[in-house]
Design a protein that fits this description.
Distance between the termini: 13 Å
CATH architecture: Orthogonal Bundle
CATH topology: 434 Repressor (Amino-terminal Domain)
Strand content: under 5%
Largest sheet: none
Number of domains: 1
């Protein structure tokens, strides 16, 4: 169920990003999951970057959620460095979201 706040946020995204709004919203959700997982693991961005064999700047970009060209390889490396499994789930939309 969507709340008024969620609907306001979706309208703002639609105004800012047009047809890209659903993708941008998804990227923000992914970024939040990444930040939370890293925080739960007790790692800094620098420590995670070292474990991923990449730069801290790359970790910052992944966690910012505004990098539209995120690859599954990057997400996999992020998960691996944290000792997590990467899972992709497709779910049917609720009737009001179609």
């Amino acid at each position: 169920m969507k709340t008024t706040t969620n609907l306001d946020h979706e309208r703002l995204l639609a105004d800012m990003y047009g047809e890209e709004a659903p993708f941008y919203s998804l990227m923000q959700s992914v970024a939040e999951v990444l930040r939370n997982a890293r925080s739960d693991a007790g790692l800094t961005q620098r420590e995670l970057a070292a474990a991923m064999n990449t730069s801290q700047a790359q970790v910052v970009r992944l966690e910012a959620g505004n990098q539209f060209a995120v690859t599954l390889r990057s997400l996999f490396a992020y998960a691996e460095a944290l000792g997590y499994d990467l899972c992709v789930v497709l779910e049917p939309r609720e009737d009001d979201e179609q």
